[in-house]
Amino acid sequence: MSIIINKASLEDLETLQSLGKQTFYETFAKDNSEEAMQKYLEESFTTEKIKSELNNPDSQFFIAWEEDHPIGYLKINSGKAQTELQDETSLEIERIYVKSSHHGKKVGQLLYEKALEITGQLGKSSIWLGVWEENLKAINFYKKNGFIEFDKHIFVLGEEKQTDLMMKKLLD
Prior knowledge:
InterPro entries: Acyl_CoA_acyltransferase, Bact_Acetyltransf, GNAT_dom. Helix content is about 35%, strand content about 35%.
């Protein structure tokens, strides 16, 4: 199986939209109400929102492709595009999502390595992210890759407040 990772542009907007909705749903639907999920998907993946994120020079998207099939994506932010921290020496991984059909096939690792590569190219000294405290698979993935927890923040999905662990990795 050969996987190619390409930087996304405005031409990929619809691909990102459907990939974003599908992977978020697959990841979190079993732990949340259908109503909360639908509301989040409608608000978070509008054409306007993704277009403005794609046009933001401090944000980058990368799509993992298996032949002509998009199977996962990465969103990274620097500078003012970061969701919090806003640390000039740091890069944020806002999203790494992979279709459930491709879990366990190292797609997430490839997307993570792309984020690391960009972190180096931009001369940043650390990389950070937020991950839901119940998403043990993701937490273990990041720990395995050298991340340590440094804080927590609240993420609201529907009416429910959920705790995200904030994790960071310092680069040599």
